[in-house]
Protein backbone atom coordinates (compact mmCIF):
# COMPACT_ATOMS: atom_id res chain seq x y z
CA UNK A 1 0.00 0.00 0.00
CA UNK A 2 1.11 3.56 -0.77
CA UNK A 3 0.00 6.90 0.73
CA UNK A 4 -1.21 9.55 -1.74
CA UNK A 5 0.80 12.78 -1.55
CA UNK A 6 -2.34 14.89 -1.82
CA UNK A 7 -5.24 13.24 0.01
CA UNK A 8 -3.01 11.07 2.27
CA UNK A 9 -5.27 8.06 1.68
CA UNK A 10 -3.73 4.64 1.26
CA UNK A 11 -4.05 3.12 -2.21
CA UNK A 12 -2.78 0.19 -4.22
CA UNK A 13 -0.84 1.33 -7.31
CA UNK A 14 -2.08 -0.33 -10.49
CA UNK A 15 0.54 -2.47 -12.17
CA UNK A 16 0.53 -4.02 -15.62
CA UNK A 17 2.80 -6.57 -17.25
CA UNK A 18 4.86 -3.72 -18.72
CA UNK A 19 5.66 -2.47 -15.24
CA UNK A 20 7.32 -5.77 -14.37
CA UNK A 21 9.43 -5.72 -17.53
CA UNK A 22 10.63 -2.11 -17.26
CA UNK A 23 11.82 0.20 -14.52
CA UNK A 24 8.84 2.48 -14.01
CA UNK A 25 8.27 4.96 -11.23
CA UNK A 26 5.01 4.36 -9.40
CA UNK A 27 2.52 7.22 -9.29
CA UNK A 28 2.72 9.19 -6.04
CA UNK A 29 -1.01 10.02 -6.30
CA UNK A 30 -4.09 7.86 -5.97
CA UNK A 31 -6.23 7.42 -9.07
CA UNK A 32 -8.88 9.90 -7.89
CA UNK A 33 -6.37 12.70 -7.25
CA UNK A 34 -4.57 12.00 -10.52
CA UNK A 35 -7.82 12.30 -12.47
CA UNK A 36 -8.45 15.70 -10.88
CA UNK A 37 -5.60 17.31 -12.84
CA UNK A 38 -6.68 18.90 -16.13
CA UNK A 39 -4.08 18.98 -18.89
CA UNK A 40 -4.31 21.83 -21.38
CA UNK A 41 -6.17 20.71 -24.48
CA UNK A 42 -8.03 22.05 -27.50
CA UNK A 43 -7.30 25.20 -29.51
CA UNK A 44 -4.84 27.53 -27.86
CA UNK A 45 -2.96 30.73 -28.55
CA UNK A 46 0.00 29.91 -30.77
CA UNK A 47 2.35 32.03 -28.66
CA UNK A 48 1.26 31.83 -24.99
CA UNK A 49 -0.77 28.56 -24.92
CA UNK A 50 -3.92 30.25 -23.59
CA UNK A 51 -6.99 28.04 -24.24
CA UNK A 52 -9.34 29.85 -26.62
CA UNK A 53 -12.24 28.14 -24.88
CA UNK A 54 -11.60 30.43 -21.90
CA UNK A 55 -11.89 33.73 -23.81
CA UNK A 56 -14.62 35.42 -25.79
CA UNK A 57 -14.27 35.29 -29.58
CA UNK A 58 -13.49 39.03 -29.77
CA UNK A 59 -10.28 38.39 -27.76
CA UNK A 60 -9.03 35.97 -30.39
CA UNK A 61 -7.06 37.30 -33.35
CA UNK A 62 -6.30 34.40 -35.65
CA UNK A 63 -3.69 32.23 -33.91
CA UNK A 64 -3.06 34.80 -31.17
CA UNK A 65 -5.00 35.97 -28.13
CA UNK A 66 -5.48 39.69 -27.49
CA UNK A 67 -2.69 39.80 -24.88
CA UNK A 68 -0.10 38.32 -27.24
CA UNK A 69 -1.20 40.65 -30.02
CA UNK A 70 -0.50 43.60 -27.72
CA UNK A 71 2.92 42.20 -26.79
CA UNK A 72 3.73 41.86 -30.51
CA UNK A 73 2.52 45.37 -31.34
CA UNK A 74 4.85 46.97 -28.77
CA UNK A 75 8.31 47.63 -30.23
CA UNK A 76 10.17 46.93 -26.99
CA UNK A 77 8.51 43.53 -26.50
CA UNK A 78 8.06 42.21 -30.05
CA UNK A 79 9.58 38.72 -30.48
CA UNK A 80 11.30 38.91 -27.09
CA UNK A 81 9.63 35.61 -26.18
CA UNK A 82 9.33 33.02 -28.95
CA UNK A 83 6.57 31.03 -27.25
CA UNK A 84 5.28 29.75 -23.93
CA UNK A 85 4.03 26.24 -23.29
CA UNK A 86 2.23 25.10 -20.14
CA UNK A 87 0.99 21.84 -18.64
CA UNK A 88 -2.20 22.29 -16.60
CA UNK A 89 -5.38 24.34 -16.57
CA UNK A 90 -5.55 26.72 -13.58
CA UNK A 91 -8.88 25.49 -12.21
CA UNK A 92 -9.99 25.39 -8.57
CA UNK A 93 -8.27 22.05 -7.99
CA UNK A 94 -4.99 23.34 -9.37
CA UNK A 95 -5.21 26.57 -7.36
CA UNK A 96 -5.45 24.54 -4.16
CA UNK A 97 -2.60 22.22 -5.13
CA UNK A 98 -0.32 25.13 -6.05
CA UNK A 99 -1.19 26.93 -2.80
CA UNK A 100 -0.27 23.86 -0.76
CA UNK A 101 2.95 23.44 -2.69
CA UNK A 102 4.15 27.07 -2.68
CA UNK A 103 2.67 28.78 0.34
CA UNK A 104 2.43 25.92 2.82
CA UNK A 105 5.89 24.58 2.10
CA UNK A 106 4.86 21.14 0.83
CA UNK A 107 7.96 20.70 -1.34
CA UNK A 108 7.33 16.97 -1.93
CA UNK A 109 4.28 17.81 -4.07
CA UNK A 110 6.58 18.61 -6.98
CA UNK A 111 6.75 14.84 -7.51
CA UNK A 112 3.04 14.85 -8.38
CA UNK A 113 3.91 16.91 -11.48
CA UNK A 114 6.96 14.97 -12.66
CA UNK A 115 5.43 12.69 -15.32
CA UNK A 116 3.23 15.34 -16.94
CA UNK A 117 5.92 18.05 -16.77
CA UNK A 118 8.54 15.86 -18.44
CA UNK A 119 6.12 14.56 -21.07
CA UNK A 120 4.83 18.01 -22.05
CA UNK A 121 8.23 19.69 -21.97
CA UNK A 122 9.88 17.23 -24.33
CA UNK A 123 6.87 17.34 -26.66
CA UNK A 124 7.68 21.00 -27.34
CA UNK A 125 11.40 21.45 -26.66
CA UNK A 126 14.57 19.58 -27.52
CA UNK A 127 17.00 18.49 -24.80
CA UNK A 128 19.56 20.90 -26.30
CA UNK A 129 18.37 23.84 -24.25
CA UNK A 130 19.42 25.58 -21.04
CA UNK A 131 16.83 26.10 -18.32
CA UNK A 132 16.53 29.45 -16.55
CA UNK A 133 14.29 29.29 -13.47
CA UNK A 134 12.56 32.49 -12.39
CA UNK A 135 14.26 33.51 -9.11
CA UNK A 136 12.65 34.45 -5.82
CA UNK A 137 13.73 37.35 -3.66
CA UNK A 138 15.90 36.40 -0.69
CA UNK A 139 13.01 37.18 1.65
CA UNK A 140 10.54 35.01 -0.29
CA UNK A 141 13.06 32.17 -0.57
CA UNK A 142 13.59 32.27 3.19
CA UNK A 143 9.83 32.21 3.83
CA UNK A 144 9.12 29.27 1.50
CA UNK A 145 12.31 27.31 1.93
CA UNK A 146 12.59 26.54 -1.78
CA UNK A 147 12.19 28.11 -5.20
CA UNK A 148 9.24 26.41 -6.92
CA UNK A 149 10.50 27.34 -10.41
CA UNK A 150 13.87 25.71 -9.77
CA UNK A 151 12.23 22.59 -8.33
CA UNK A 152 10.29 22.24 -11.61
CA UNK A 153 13.47 22.74 -13.63
CA UNK A 154 15.23 20.02 -11.65
CA UNK A 155 12.58 17.50 -12.73
CA UNK A 156 13.85 17.78 -16.32
CA UNK A 157 17.50 16.80 -15.68
CA UNK A 158 18.84 19.44 -18.08
CA UNK A 159 21.46 22.18 -17.59
CA UNK A 160 20.21 24.96 -15.30
CA UNK A 161 21.60 28.50 -15.38
CA UNK A 162 20.85 30.77 -12.42
CA UNK A 163 21.63 33.95 -14.33
CA UNK A 164 18.74 36.11 -13.07
CA UNK A 165 18.34 37.83 -9.73
CA UNK A 166 15.07 39.19 -8.34
CA UNK A 167 15.02 42.97 -7.85
CA UNK A 168 11.39 43.63 -6.90
CA UNK A 169 10.20 41.60 -3.93
CA UNK A 170 6.50 42.54 -3.95
CA UNK A 171 4.17 39.80 -5.16
CA UNK A 172 3.14 40.26 -8.79
CA UNK A 173 -0.39 39.06 -7.96
CA UNK A 174 -0.91 42.23 -5.91
CA UNK A 175 -0.19 44.55 -8.84
CA UNK A 176 -2.26 45.78 -11.75
CA UNK A 177 -1.25 44.85 -15.29
CA UNK A 178 0.17 48.36 -15.87
CA UNK A 179 2.19 48.18 -12.64
CA UNK A 180 3.63 44.82 -13.67
CA UNK A 181 4.76 46.22 -17.01
CA UNK A 182 6.49 49.20 -15.40
CA UNK A 183 8.19 47.29 -12.59
CA UNK A 184 11.82 46.25 -12.94
CA UNK A 185 11.62 42.66 -11.73
CA UNK A 186 15.08 41.20 -12.42
CA UNK A 187 18.69 41.93 -13.12
CA UNK A 188 21.39 39.78 -14.68
CA UNK A 189 24.01 38.14 -12.49
CA UNK A 190 26.43 38.16 -15.45
CA UNK A 191 27.62 40.74 -17.99
CA UNK A 192 26.89 38.64 -21.06
CA UNK A 193 25.59 35.18 -21.82
CA UNK A 194 25.98 33.30 -25.06
CA UNK A 195 23.24 30.72 -25.45
CA UNK A 196 21.49 29.42 -28.56
CA UNK A 197 18.24 28.42 -26.89
CA UNK A 198 17.06 28.85 -23.32
CA UNK A 199 13.75 28.07 -21.65
CA UNK A 200 12.51 30.16 -18.74
CA UNK A 201 10.83 27.97 -16.10
CA UNK A 202 8.08 29.23 -13.81
CA UNK A 203 5.02 27.89 -12.03
CA UNK A 204 2.36 30.20 -13.46
CA UNK A 205 1.74 32.18 -16.64
CA UNK A 206 -0.96 34.84 -16.19
CA UNK A 207 -0.33 38.10 -18.06
CA UNK A 208 3.10 37.11 -19.33
CA UNK A 209 4.76 40.06 -17.61
CA UNK A 210 7.21 37.98 -15.57
CA UNK A 211 8.53 35.85 -18.42
CA UNK A 212 8.64 38.78 -20.86
CA UNK A 213 10.75 40.85 -18.48
CA UNK A 214 13.10 37.91 -17.95
CA UNK A 215 13.22 37.08 -21.67
CA UNK A 216 14.18 40.65 -22.61
CA UNK A 217 17.12 40.57 -20.21
CA UNK A 218 18.29 37.22 -21.54
CA UNK A 219 18.10 38.42 -25.15
CA UNK A 220 20.02 41.58 -24.24
CA UNK A 221 22.68 39.38 -22.61
CA UNK A 222 23.15 37.40 -25.82
CA UNK A 223 20.63 34.54 -25.84
CA UNK A 224 19.46 33.86 -29.38
CA UNK A 225 16.02 32.31 -28.80
CA UNK A 226 14.10 32.50 -25.52
CA UNK A 227 11.09 30.34 -24.68
CA UNK A 228 9.15 29.76 -21.48
CA UNK A 229 7.56 26.73 -19.88
CA UNK A 230 5.17 26.93 -16.95
CA UNK A 231 3.31 24.45 -14.82
CA UNK A 232 -0.08 26.13 -15.28
CA UNK A 233 -1.65 28.63 -17.69
CA UNK A 234 -4.19 30.91 -15.98
Automatic annotation (TrEMBL):
Coiled coil: none annotated. It comes from the Bacteria. Residues 144-232 form the Phosphoribosyltransferase domain. This is Phosphoribosyl transferase domain protein. The keyword Nucleotide-binding does not apply. It comes from Anoxybacteroides amylolyticum. Belongs to the ComF/GntX family. Signal peptide: none annotated. The keyword Cell membrane does not apply. Keywords: Transferase. One of its GO terms (molecular function) is transferase activity. InterPro entries: ComF/GntX_DNA_util-trans (IPR051910), PRTase-like (IPR029057), PRTase_dom (IPR000836).
